[in-house]
Design goal:
Number of helices: 17
Helix content: 40-55%
Number of strands: 10
Strand order of the largest sheet: 6-5-7-9-10
Structural class: alpha/beta
Number of domains: 2
Distance between the termini: 74 Å
Order of helices and strands: HEEEEEHHEHEHHEHEHHHHHEHHHHH
CATH architecture of the largest domain: 3-Layer(aba) Sandwich
CATH class of the largest domain: Alpha Beta
Largest sheet: 5 strands, parallel
């Protein structure tokens, strides 16, 4: 009886496998043919209106330069219209960090990278093109990547992740699936047969892409914080955060596929952010607290921040009481991290700095799940990666990333940009794109000094003015925690940032 039942189930399973065999053969054939997976084909949530080319020919038709219509968000940059045989062309894509803010491309990592390459192999023609757009998120970089892939690049460097929450976006009826549904969707998202069926369906409807996109964004960035009262638009919304994270992963995979399809190497960068000296930009108490709990939490926070005579141990006790009631209050977590770091407990402090960043209701810094996702995608897709965040942490050891290597929440100092360029050129050497000949670092130092001599005080004064403008943009967002930090610095408290050298 048992043998008969076993044979019966074996027959059924065999029949199913035989039925699936043609689909398996088709899937393998489509993969060998290079058909992309469904989630690499298009963006189901975002479209753009009236997107203008980033580059246009100059009047002499000798160079491509940033189009005048795009210079509100992009700085001057360009490349030769006719590429020489010995030329090596690199496009750097990303946001304001890539552009070099608060300064400009002359002190951005793209410039230091070009100087490093010239020092390493001066006989070659190196072109490093800065495509950093202020406030540009990953979804706005996709059209730029599509454009620059048509200009014969030898390498594309992608530095993105900090700007994903700047613009308001809708994801329609998107809901994060769970359990078996999520597992089945994940499998389907990688099947080329699903992509073929989708393309066939769109062709029958006479369309080239899915027309169900719920939102069309303007051609240029409209950041919520640029609006009057824009900060009030940021509320705790874990579902929306997860949607933004998933969208970020989708855009990374799409850009990886675009580069692979064009046979152009893509180098991903894991961005760095200031943990130590940038409090959360917005913190609120849990709206589920009872009135008496809310009053207690406010009193605890007032006592922890407004009483300069309290010792560190007393302040920690007050903060622990608050966080026991409301564990997601970002500025309280941040303040606890600073006190612990000042007391020498750097490991626990680092953990809390990261947690405070992720609890920021106005996330202007890359969230931890996004860092994890970027690293995971790079490993899965076998894409070269430069982990700038880890490099900053290593160079600042035993400290925690902050001032002076970053001038604000995400923008590196001039020296920080040089660190990034150094890490990039060494990665390119590991990829056999450049040979680092003996003495190249000394030659690089000479070139860097000569380059800095061409920049006058006006250049740096304008950079300082932009930095002050950025701080005004975020003025008041960090509340009294900023005032507490400033008071501690002025009083000589050991909360003052250290200026450590690598």
């Amino acid at each position: 009886m048992a043998d008969r039942r076993c044979r019966k189930w074996s027959f059924r399973i065999g029949a199913v496998l035989i039925g699936l065999l043609p689909l398996l053969v088709l899937e393998v054939a489509l993969r060998l043919a290079g058909l992309p997976a469904p989630d690499e084909l298009y963006d189901p949530w975002i479209a753009f209106e009236n997107v203008q080319p980033l580059f246009e020919l100059d009047d002499q038709r000798q160079r491509y330069v940033i189009a005048e219509s795009r210079r509100t968000f992009f700085a001057e940059s360009g490349f030769h219209a006719h590429k020489d045989r010995d030329s090596f062309r690199i496009f750097c894509l990303g946001g304001s960090t890539v552009q070099g803010r608060p300064y400009q491309p002359p002190t951005a990592f793209s410039t230091w990278l070009e100087l490093s390459l010239l020092a390493a192999e001066p006989s070659r023609q190196w072109e490093v093109v800065n495509c950093g757009g202020v406030s540009y998120a990953s979804y706005r970089l996709v059209p730029i990547l599509e454009e620059v892939l048509g200009h014969a690049p030898d390498l594309v460097i992608l530095y993105t992740g900090h700007n994903e929450f700047l613009e308001d976006r809708s994801y329609g009826d998107y809901r994060q699936p769970s359990g078996l549904t999520r597992a089945s969707q994940k499998v389907a998202s990688h099947l080329r047969t699903v992509a073929l069926l989708r393309r066939g369906w769109l062709a029958l409807k006479g369309e080239t892409k899915d027309s169900s996109q719920p939102q069309t964004l303007p051609g240029e960035v409209q950041a919520q914080l640029d609006e009057e009262g824009g900060l009030a638009l940021y509320q705790r919304d874990d579902d929306w955060h997860q949607q933004v994270i998933d969208h970020f992963g989708l855009n990374l995979r799409r850009m990886i596929h675009l580069a692979e399809e064009a046979n152009v190497p893509l180098l991903l960068v894991n961005p760095v952010e200031d943990l130590r000296d940038s409090p959360p930009f917005k913190s609120t108490f849990d709206d589920q607290l009872l009135p008496e709990q809310l009053q207690q939490c406010r009193q605890l926070l007032d006592s922890a921040t407004d009483a300069p005579s309290l010792q560190a141990r007393q302040r920690l006790e007050l903060l622990d009481q608050l966080l026991a009631i409301d564990p997601r209050r970002g500025d309280a977590i941040y303040l606890k991290a600073r006190i612990l770091e000042a007391g020498g407990n750097r490991a626990k402090a680092h953990e809390l700095f990261v947690r405070a960043k992720d609890e920021d209701l106005c996330p202007l810094r890359m969230l931890e799940p996004m860092h994890d996702l970027l690293l995971e995608i790079a490993q899965q897709q076998q894409v070269p990666l430069v982990d700038v965040r880890r490099e900053f942490t290593r160079r600042m050891s035993p400290g925690i990333v902050g001032r002076p290597q970053l001038v604000d929440h995400v923008h590196p100092s001039l020296e920080g940009h040089q660190w990034i360029a150094d890490h990039l050129v060494r990665k390119m050497a590991a990829m056999d794109m450049v040979r680092l000949k003996e003495g190249w670092e000394e030659r690089r130092g000479e070139r860097e000094r000569e380059h800095l001599a061409t920049l006058d005080e006006v250049y740096f004064a304008q950079g300082r003015k932009r930095l002050e403008g950025l701080r005004m943009w975020t003025q008041g967002l960090s509340g009294r925690i900023d005032l507490l930090i400033e008071r501690d610095r002025q009083s000589g408290d050991n909360l003052q940032p250290r200026k450590e050298k690598p």
